[in-house]
Amino acid sequence: MQLMNFSKAIFFALATLMVVSCGNNNGTTQSTKKKYTKQEIEDYNRLMAKKEAKRISQYVEEKGWPAKETGTGLHYYIYEDSSGPKPVEGNKVKVNITICYLNGDTAYSHVRYGAETFEIDRTNKESGLNEGVQYMPLGAKAKLVIPSHLAHGVVGDQAKIPPRTPLVFDVELLEIF
Hints:
By secondary structure, the chain is of the alpha+beta class. The chain has a domain of 110 residues: Chitinase A, domain 3 (Roll). Helices cover 33% and strands 24% of the residues. The protein has four helices and seven strands; from the N terminus they run ααββββαβαββ. Strands 1, 2, 3, 4, 5, 6 and 7 form a seven-stranded antiparallel beta sheet that branches. The longest helix is centred in the first third of the chain and has 26 residues.
């Protein structure tokens, strides 16, 4: 008898739980995520870009580098100059690159991956790198502080570089051809 009462109690508890948990949503689901307007997204991106630009300027200042800033937001500092020719759009270049975060940690290094060859402005290389090497004479070494919009943008590289990450490229221009 007790087993039957216990079984009935369990049955009614489960039935009540099923009725309560189903709820009445009339076939729709409610989303708690806010839908942002195009203007809100643009405003947010402008704010983030402004904060990042300030962070980069502070970084360059703290390093004491006499870096030049371009109209795109790239900061470059040629720390080992040369009197060689400068590459232009369409040239192929061979470079040694070490990519670091602003905290100094290394993401990628030519020591591990070797020198890279690419055609300026005609490859999928970071646009900040494409721009920066054009300021460098053959044989020069430079630090390029590249804002995220000129590097890997809002998605990162899906490997070592997180979204919206400004980067420091230490570049040596080995060849122009």
